[in-house]
Amino acid sequence: MIKTHRLTKRFGDNTAVDGLTLEIARGEVFGFLGPNGAGKTTTVRMLSCLIGPTDGAALVNGYDIVREPMQVRASVGVLTESPGMYNRLSAERNLLLYARLYDVDDPARQVAKYLSMLGLWERRQEPVGAFSKGMKQKLAIARALIHEPQTLFLDEPTAGLDPAAARMVRDFIEELKTEGRTIFLTTHNLDEAERLCDRIAVMRSRLIAVDTPDALRIGLFGQHVRVQIANLSEAHRIAAAVLPAVKEVRVQNGALLVSLDHPDRDNPALVNALVSAGAQIQYVQPSDASLEDVYLQLVGNGEAVSD
């Protein structure tokens, strides 16, 4: 569980995070989106007690980040954007070191568990300096999990990885979702956020919006269906537009893009009206805005949510 109230961080005259208030449920995968310099990494660093806030308050796993930083650090795992490992040590020795720092019961067993889960067991004796970036990222994830934290902060976990390594990391995060951990994920990969996250927040120093991807899509763009018509004409557009359930009709790439409040309920009436107008319908399919459309709309507008 994570709860913040007007959490703020200033560096001199620059306000990196301005009055952040949000609540993340236990077991939720929460996406934190925003352009470079939006305050995402600063937020992660505050919540994991790597830096202190200038103002405001936050609880992580029930611990206060100002009064109980040691308890917070013990209960979270952190993957930074540029994870530092001891390059001269083997993968196994790196993890054993961190397992002992966290006072993990049976460190060797725990190290073997995560090296095996992440496909690194056969390379465990090799120095980390010889690993590829993807292998180092997997090892850093293992380090973040070695003490079985309640909450996991992942800061750009697939940044700079090749497609195969990025897919492996995403698959592993999906596996972690089933274990009931709270996962706080910052990413620039919007497809990744949509696939993995229960809710997302869009940030630009201040919180702009927070909700599920579907709710943000519908709130900004409504729900649309695409009706492909072989003999499309203006009469068909008019026939759709006059229906009470239809909010908007546009012609797009040789099809009708129709905005409806409740497509499942209203599609039959739409199809009947078009057929009555002589339309030769080839297919009807949902045509939702992408998360990228939502993100660009929110960041371009930039109006913060009210406290």
> What's the order of the H and E elements?
EEEHEEHEHHHEHEHEEHEHEEHEH
Helix/sheet category: alpha/beta
Strand elements, count = 14
Helix content class:
25-40%
CATH A-level architecture of the largest domain:
3-Layer(aba) Sandwich
CATH topology of the largest domain: Rossmann fold
Q: Sheet with the most strands?
A: 6 strands, mixed
The CATH class of the largest domain: Alpha Beta
Determine the N-to-C terminus distance. Answer: 20 Å
How is the largest sheet built, in terms of strand order?
Answer: 6-7-8-3-9-10
Q: Strands, helices and their partners?
A:
Blueprint (H helix, E strand, L loop, with lengths): L1 E10 L2 E11 L4 E5 L6 H8 L7 E6 L2 E2 L4 H7 E4 L11 H11 L5 H11 L15 H13 L5 E5 L7 H15 L4 E5 L3 H7 L2 E6 L1 E6 L1 H9 L1 E7 L4 H8 L4 E7 L2 E6 L2 H14 L4 E6 L4 H11 L6
Helix pairs in contact: 3-4, 8-11
Description:
The mean pLDDT is 89. It is built from eleven helices and 14 strands. The strands form three sheets. A six-stranded mixed β-sheet has the order 6-7-8-3-9-10, with helices on both faces. It has two domains: 2-213, Rossmann fold (3-Layer(aba) Sandwich); 223-288, Alpha-Beta Plaits (2-Layer Sandwich). The radius of gyration is 24 Å and the shape is elongated. 37% of the residues lie in helices and 28% in strands. A hairpin with a 2-residue loop joins strand 1 and strand 2. With 307 residues, the protein is of the alpha/beta class. The chain has helices at residues 40-47, 69-75, 91-101, 107-117, 133-145, 163-177, 190-196, 213-221, 234-241, 263-276, 291-301; strands at residues 2-11, 14-24, 29-33, 55-60, 63-64, 76-79, 151-155, 182-186, 199-204, 206-211, 223-229, 246-252, 255-260, 281-286.
